[in-house]
Amino acid sequence: MKKELFRKELAGFQSYVPGKSAEEVQEEYGLTEIAKLASNENQFGPSPKAVEAVCKAASEINYYPDPFAFELRKALGVKLNVKPENIVVGSGGEEMISIIAHTFLNAGDEVVMADPTFGIYQTTALLLGAKPVPVPYKNCRCDINGMVNAVTDKTKLFYLCSPNNPTGDILTDEDLDYVFSHVPEDVVIIIDEAYYEFAKENPAYPDSLKRLEKRENVVVLRTFSKVCGLAGVRVGYVITSPVIAGEMGKVKQTFNVNRLAQAAALGALQDEEHIQKTVAGNARSLDMLYEFFTEMQYEYIPSNANFVFVNVHLDSALIFEELQKRGVIVRPGCAWGWKTWLRVSTGTEEQTQMFIRRMREIAGTYGRE
Predict the structure, then answer these.
(1) How far apart are CA 283 and CA 285, in angstroms?
(2) How many Cβ atoms sit within 10 Å of the Cβ of residue 24?
(3) Is the pTM for the entire model greater than 0.85?
(4) Quick check: 20 pLDDT over 90?
(5) CA angle, 310 as apex, 305 and 311 as ends, to 5°?
């Protein structure tokens, strides 16, 4: 088969590598108990109202879904105090990022982002022949000044992930003020707020939607995957200007959000009780993890999401494998070039305690470098 059949960008392309599934680890190591704390999923379960809505909608899956997700966009508009024409809905945050890339990027364009951050920003840029421009963290914080200085006349997109994945830290109003006053108007600023519902508990977390009133080239991304527990049905959305929303609508697939997913999202929007229970459970899990890390003298970055980034002072690839053998799945920091760090998702009290027990066993075996 000739190489010329394929896009030239695929020759050196490294696709995004997701964490192993619980079933895969269970089969590989012959385990009966698994705590999957690798993918920042909601371990407290999906919204009950979303599940009820899916059951009701199941009898109509012989019909195509609404290609415009009108009812969902209308409900989101009411909740967010924006118009439906400001909203684009997609099959999870990952598809929304792909739609953003296909809407704006040409070969040779540049995309500024933090390093580390969510890997899909980079892979979608590379696939289209654009150039990712990662700006390393400084003192365990996003280097806003460095990111602004990385902007050139080729910069098309400027990604801000807040809370940042995998670090969990947020951008403040002061950070956003600096970005918006220094990044040229013709650069599109994307604020990825996948963990918004967790982060807004922090009084320092800014209201990014206010930025839409002052600048047309702004895209705010959110999702139902995390706090609502709908990762398995895939619903994400962006809030932006009607002009950008219209162009993104040309790019997205016609029936990209299936009927059950739209129903689930509408149900979850009505389930404030589930959101609050999830946020409270997340806080308890973080407190347990912080207490353990402090006891072990592990450096960690205080999180505003449902995961925490921690320095365990051992090779993260080794710890990743040792934890898997013991039924706990996490993400090793070596995936982002942080050799001794782990990203650990929050979980139920039982799951969090299981992670702590297994880490004690491993620390006792290997000690610390």
Answers:
(1) 5
(2) 13
(3) yes
(4) no
(5) 160
